[in-house]
Predict the structure.
Amino acid sequence: MRPGPSYTAATMALQRAFESNRPSATRLFCDPYAQAFTSGALRFLARVSCLPLVGPLAPRLFDIIGGPGPRPSAVARTRLIDDIVTDAAPTVKQVVILGAGFDTRAHRLSALAGIPVFEVDHPATQAAKRSVAEGLGLSTARVTYVAVDFERQSLEQQLRTAGLGAGVPTLFIWEGVTNYLSTTAVDG
């Protein structure tokens, strides 16, 4: 079992913070909580991206280090999934976010108000997320954190134990997880 939260979850939070720090007229979405889920050098980059004149340099530096595709892909993917969730919300009774990482849709998308959200991730990432969410004062009344090690535990069993309703219209979100798992875990 890994000792701490997912670094990928933190870099995704950074990418959402970069987009959220852009001028409101040009950004694709706003995640007001994203920066809180970063630390160290990632937090520094997120803070720099807020500054006038030098702010746009932070995402460019990230792109130089990480390559030109991950950040724009993450931003586009976030917006697309936000739109799908918003459109589907009136027809679903629960939402499951697989590999939730530091995703904040349960808190930032008004379309999810009143809809139970099950956030599934590795126990270490879940613990870090809960700590930050509590520190931000975010209500977790509608959020059920389901700690699952996809490589070692049954997702179906863990969701059932957490209270996921069977036969209830459910939206599943599985964003950027499969490339970090074995074929066996993905198939499971």
Q: What stands out?
A: The longest strand covers residues 94-98. The CA atoms of residues 61 and 67 lie 10 Å apart. The two ends are 19 Å apart (CA to CA).
